[in-house]
Design goal:
With about 190 residues, the chain is of the alpha/beta class. The protein contains eight helices and eight strands, in the order βαβαβαβααβααβββα. The strands form two sheets. It has a six-stranded parallel β-sheet with strand order 3-2-1-4-5-6, sandwiched between helices. The protein has a two-stranded antiparallel sheet with strand order 7-8.
Length: about 190
């Protein structure tokens, strides 16, 4: 598909659903987006940077300190060139960090350094998802402009069936497109 000129920063976090990021990258690219991937340290337990890079066609950024030749802070570069930041799958840990402004990795620092719209697609065990703290964190993020693509009911890695299964890619893609469209309308009306 023809590029639309929009750059998506995809944050992949430590969830078993991280493997779905490859198909999500494919869908985003087919919709015309350029995708840059950053991943949290613990996401490496679920998917490799090489797999994500192979689908995105761009370097996967997962560390501040192993980027030889860069003269600008990587999180600032990512923030400046991102039209939208998508965190999918979003773990309870990263949701809590973002809700409270903690910045201890490339992804959370890029979110804090960016004015770009934020879309979050949670994926976790149902008890974690429905826990009062997680729900309060999601509410706080929504109140601050983030769009949350609610998880769906489905098979969970703990062998349970429940709420917490990552939303399907088409729902995530629609949320990205709608948020970019509303952001563009806001920009034009100013």
């Amino acid at each position: 598909m023809k590029p639309n000129g929009k750059n998506i920063l995809l944050g992949v976090t430590a969830s078993i659903a991280a493997y779905k990021a490859c198909d999500l990258i494919t869908d985003l690219r087919e919709a015309g987006f350029t995708v840059t991937v950053t991943m949290t340290r613990d996401a490496h337990h679920f998917i490799t940077p090489l797999a994500l890079q192979s689908f995105a066609g761009t370097e996967v950024i997962d560390d501040f300190f192993s980027l030889p030749g860069r003269t600008n802070p990587v999180h600032i570069e990512l923030a400046k060139r991102s039209d939208l930041i998508l965190v999918a799958p979003a773990s309870a840990d990263v949701i809590a960090k973002l809700a409270h402004g903690l910045a201890d990795d490339v992804l959370s620092c890029a979110v804090l350094a960016s004015d770009a719209p934020l879309v979050i697609a949670p994926a976790m065990n149902e008890k974690m998802y429905t826990h009062r703290f997680t729900q309060e964190n999601l509410k706080r993020l929504k109140e601050n402009g983030a769009v949350v693509v609610e998880p769906i009911r489905g098979h969970l890695v703990c062998s349970d069936e429940g709420m917490g299964h990552l939303a399907d890619n088409q729902a995530i893609l629609r949320a990205v497109q709608q948020r970019l469209a509303s952001s563009e309308l806001s920009r034009r009306s100013q």
